[in-house]
């Protein structure tokens, strides 16, 4: 049995309306307009002018729920982006201030880092002065100076030469009497022997 054109059209419309329920109420001419190629202008129509079929198709396309849902989602995304942009603009002054503060702190840290190299060198130099070897050397030098000073005092007394009346460094020179000589000589030698004893024990590992 051969289907009639009417039954074929009815079957086509049934399949079409099942997929696109919005076409159920359209006339045959409307369906033909939708099926027409909108890129082909009608006779006497300029190619740059939108065709009636194109306008009809666009109107129908925009009436579809899925299309409207897509437009609604797109509009929601645009609004969300605009709100985010507004929030970002509101935060911009605080961010700029924070950036400037961070840059200032970074510059300060770099300056301190450069300064630390100099301070570290100075600290190392100071530590050398108080290292065990430096302290031992200083103790030996001090003992040696005391020995030299006591010998100079003894020579001045024996030879009757003038000698500073005290160890302040600003005292005047004068002849020493026996009592003053003995007192100063004993003090110098006592201090010398104490320091030399400590230095010798230090060198022997007996001082910690």
CATH class of the domain at 131-204: Mainly Alpha
Quote the distance from N terminus to C terminus.
122 Å
| Rg from Cα | 55 Å
Strand content: under 5%
Structural class: mainly alpha
* Number of helical segments with 4 or more residues: 6
Number of strands: 2
Strand order in space, largest sheet: 1-2
Give the topology string: H per helix, E per strand. HHHHHEEH
Low-confidence segments, given as residue ranges, are: 1-12, 40-45
CATH architecture classification of the domain at 131-204: Orthogonal Bundle
How would a crystallographer describe the biggest sheet? 2 strands, antiparallel
Shape: rod-shaped
Share in helix: over 70%
Overall average residue pLDDT: 77
CATH topology of the domain at 131-204: Helix Hairpins
Coiled coil: 95-129
Main location: other
Keywords: Coiled coil, Endosome, Protein transport, Transport
Family: Belongs to the VPS37 family.
Brief sketch in words of this structure:
With 208 residues, the protein is mainly alpha-helical. The protein is 74% helix and 2% strand.
What does this structure look like?
With 208 residues, the protein is mainly alpha-helical. It has a domain at 131-204: Helix Hairpins (Orthogonal Bundle). The protein is 74% helix and 2% strand. It is built from six helices and two strands, in the order H-H-H-H-H-E-E-H. Strands 1-2 form a two-stranded antiparallel sheet. A hairpin with an 8-residue loop joins strand 1 and strand 2 (173-174). The longest helix is centred in the middle third of the chain and has 65 residues, at 65-129. It is rod-shaped, with a radius of gyration of 55 Å.
């Amino acid at each position: 049995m051969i289907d009639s054109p009417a039954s074929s059209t009815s079957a086509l419309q049934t399949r079409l309306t099942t997929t696109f329920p919005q076409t159920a109420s359209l006339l045959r001419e409307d369906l033909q307009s939708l099926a027409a190629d909108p890129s082909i202008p009608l006779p006497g129509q300029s190619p740059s002018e939108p065709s009636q079929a194109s306008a009809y198709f666009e109107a129908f396309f925009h009436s579809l729920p899925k299309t409207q849902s897509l437009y609604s989602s797109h509009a929601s995304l645009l609004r969300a982006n605009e709100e985010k942009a507004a929030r970002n603009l509101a935060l911009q002054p605080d961010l700029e201030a924070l950036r400037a503060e961070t840059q200032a702190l970074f510059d300060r840290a770099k300056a301190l880092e450069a300064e630390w190299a100099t301070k570290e060198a100075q600290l190392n130099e100071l530590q050398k002065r108080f290292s065990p070897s430096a302290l031992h050397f200083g103790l030996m030098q001090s003992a040696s100076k005391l020995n030299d000073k006591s010998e100079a005092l003894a020579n001045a007394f024996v030879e009757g030469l003038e000698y500073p009346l005290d160890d302040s460094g600003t005292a005047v020179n004068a002849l020493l009497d026996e009592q003053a000589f003995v007192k100063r000589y004993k003090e110098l030698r006592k201090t010398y022997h104490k320091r030399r004893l400590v230095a010798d024990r230090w060198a022997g590992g007996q001082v910690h």
